Amino acid sequence: MMNWWGRRTRWQQFLLVLMVVLAGYVAYLFVKPASLNSAVFTVPISGGDDEFRTEGRDPAWSPDGSVIAYTSQDEDDLEAVFTFDLASSEVTSVASGGQAAWSPDGSQLAVAAEDEDGVIGIYLVDASGSEATFLVEGNHPSWSPDGTRIAYDVTDADGAVTVSMIDLDTSEVTPVTEGDEPSWSPDGSSLALVREDGDGNSEIYVFDLETSEEVLVAEGDDPSWSPDGTTIAFTADGDEESMVSTVQPGSDPVELIDGEGPSWSPDGDQIAFARNE
User: Fold this and answer.
1) How far is it, in rounded angstroms, from Cα 50 to Cα 201?
2) pTM here?
């Protein structure tokens, strides 16, 4: 058998090794999980240094403040929801899907997942991990503060997106208004939601569930209410990158830090967010 390695000069051997290494690196760039391009951080709402927590995106702080649910990829490179324990750094796999929303008592998560037919639906799963139970077709779940309903958005055959809510006892679905990415206010009276203007820019509105009155509060998306209901954190377009910002309805937005997808800690002192690496 020909010794193809030995017949080459040391320089040729070096070039071959270099080509193999570069080829492997290029392959890694194309096959590495998407979640490795994004990481979850926390930052004090008063400002200061952020703290890396784990690789992933779409963080959601638990009601007791002990863990953060987030979206990453499982061992099969499929989108999945995990929890990160802030005290021990322990990671627990919870369910397939993403965009997790906690129940008010912290016992369950609502997640959005795609079935084998490509239909996106909302599923309920125990926070410790269990078989997911299908609830309704839709996306971006948000649990009501009293735990009786979930708001979500759904896209019809014509591409129109509507915010609806489902009663967890009766399964009755009630359309609310056009828009997506609903976020329930802590007192249960309003939804923050996102719509596009005529130029395709995302805008955040606060929609009153009793009167149907609505107020434009900021340009951006990913709205998340502060625990005291006075402020909304959201993702805004910065000059060069996305910015986590906050706004009190009726006031001007304030930039906090570069990142996206904010979620408040239950004590209101910190915000979890994701940043592309």
Assistant:
1) 28
2) 0.84
